[in-house]
Write a structure and sequence with these properties.
With 442 residues, the chain is of the alpha+beta class. The protein has a domain of 182 residues: Uridine Diphospho-n-acetylenolpyruvylglucosamine Reductase, domain 3 (2-Layer Sandwich), CATH 3.30.465. 31% of the residues lie in helices and 25% in strands. The protein is built from 15 helices and 16 strands. It has an eight-stranded antiparallel sheet with strand order 12-9-11-10-14-15-13-16. Strands 3, 4, 5, 6, 7 and 8 form a six-stranded antiparallel sheet that branches. It has a two-stranded parallel ribbon with strand order 1-2. A hairpin with a 5-residue loop joins β6 and β7. The radius of gyration is 21 Å and the shape is globular. The mean pLDDT is 91.
Length: 442
């Protein structure tokens, strides 16, 4: 029997078994939780009364169509595994989020982003079709034409309407290497003006790194067929430090995609593995999967001392307000380095229901992650960030540390529309609502 036919049959067998498990859990009055191999969310959640469905086997590429440049994948496949397969055809997903452990389904139910997002938008805007498991065990196919309310309502729902078990994702042609240029700027006005200018260019990739008020870099990446030399940031050399040291660089396409994974951007400093001696001993551990496991374990075992505040934030700021937010960030929060990623959501036939981002608007994503010493009440710095983000007309990724009160949250994320979707696709509230899922309980 043809391998694709076997994979299709196996997928159907798995979905039928999962549907029966979900239906039985619902009949017992249990809420549904998700058990998978990786997670990029760091929140404490109650486990009481939940039945955890195991979706770890939904991790395969079912088919790649090189002519249409699409991949048919299961929802829990990591981007690491997906990229391995697509590169065999000289292709890459149009947007590949920064860490190997992010799953395709997770990137769509959130708002996945990367350095090609100024061209292609966010991850969900590169999806053609999805099969979503609902809380009653039904498997519903949706696209912009079939069940469009679910298709346009699913992004940013974070598993509160259902789980994406299968997706058709668009691919782009890739060349063997990416040529990087790092341009330094010394003032925010000229820096963000250049970001806006280059976001209109034909360059393939665009992002930036801020080290201080007077040291900001814009990195442009261009696919090329040949490279005079190739750098390696998977072991002793550290990518973010190279930005300060080189005006241009070359990486293989694969190493460019995972340039941030080895050191979790720069957050590997918390585990001391940026020290050469420790780095030599633990080459196998230099990856986001290791750091996530350590972080989840530390959240479970270490009590909150009250003397520090964890600030894990990705916020999206309109380009004309980026200098103002930048000044606030360095003056009031003081975290550096900061990752900068311009993106534009694409105009579509209709709006993405749960996304507060305006179609066609150029935004700058600021990513900053650290622990701040504090004598303030719990959540002080995170609340400052949320208030400033709202003030300048921005939004935030809901994987981030969230401290909104409930009324404030629903004023941003369209409660009436969410309630309609919830009543249609999860009327028995088998899954938690969006506020309960995404906002940390105090």
């Amino acid at each position: 029997m043809d391998g694709r036919v076997l994979m299709e049959a196996d997928y159907r067998r798995k979905t039928e078994a999962l549907a029966a498990e979900v239906s039985n859990a619902r009949a017992r009055g249990e809420r549904i939780g998700l058990r998978k191999s990786t997670s990029n969310l760091f929140r404490h959640r109650s486990q009481a009364g939940k039945h955890f469905i195991d979706v770890r086997s939904f991790h395969r590429v079912l088919a790649i169509d090189p002519q249409r440049m699409t991949a048919d994948v299961e929802g829990m496949i990591t981007y690491e595994a997906l990229v391995e397969e697509t590169l065999k055809y000289g292709l890459l997903p149009a947007i590949v989020p920064q860490l190997k452990t992010i799953t395709v389904g997770g990137a769509v139910s959130g708002l996945g982003i990367e350095s090609s997002s100024f061209k292609f938008g966010l991850v969900h805007e590169t999806i053609e079709k999805m099969e979503i498991m609902l809380g009653d065990g039904r498997l519903v196919t949706c696209s912009c034409r079939e069940n469009p309310d679910l298709f346009f309502g699913f992004p940013n729902s974070y598993g509160t309407l259902g789980y994406a078990l299968r997706l058709t994702i668009r691919l782009i042609p890739a060349k063997p290497y990416v040529h990087l240029t790092h341009t330094r700027f010394a003032d925010p006005e000229s820096y963000f003006a250049r970001v806006a200018e280059r976001a209109e260019s034909p360059v393939d990739y665009l992002d930036g790194t801020i080290f201080s008020r007077g040291e900001m870099y814009l990195t442009e990446g261009q696919f090329v067929d040949h490279a005079p030399s190739v750098s390696d940031y998977t072991y002793m050399d550290i990518y973010y430090r190279s930005i300060q040291q080189k005006s241009e660089d070359w990486l293989t396409a694969k190493d460019y995609i995972w340039r941030w994974d080895t050191d979790w951007f720069w957050c590997s400093k918390h585990f001391y593995v940026q020290q050469p001696g420790i780095r030599r001993l633990f080459k196998w551990a230099l990856n986001s999967r290791t750091y996530q496991r350590i972080m989840r374990l530390s959240y479970s075992l270490m009590p909150d001392s009250g003397r520090t505040e964890s600030v894990i934030q990705d916020v999206d700021i309109p380009i004309d307000k980026a200098p103002e937010f930048f000044d606030f960030l360095l003056s009031e929060i003081g975290i550096t380095p900061v990752w900068v990623c311009p993106f534009r959501t694409r105009d579509s036939a209709r709006a993405w229901d749960l996304s507060p981002l305006r179609p066609g608007q150029l935004y700058v994503n600021f990513g900053f992650w650290d622990v701040i010493p504090t004598t303030h009440e719990k959540g002080h710095f995170n609340r400052m960030i949320e208030r400033k983000t709202m003030e300048v007309g921005g939004a935030k990724g809901l994987y981030s540390s969230a401290w909104y009160d409930e009324a404030e949250f629903w004023s941003i994320y369209d409660q009436p529309r969410y309630v309609e979707l919830k009543q249609t696709y999860d009327p028995q509230a088998v899954f938690p609502d969006l506020y309960s899922k995404c906002v940390r309980r105090h």
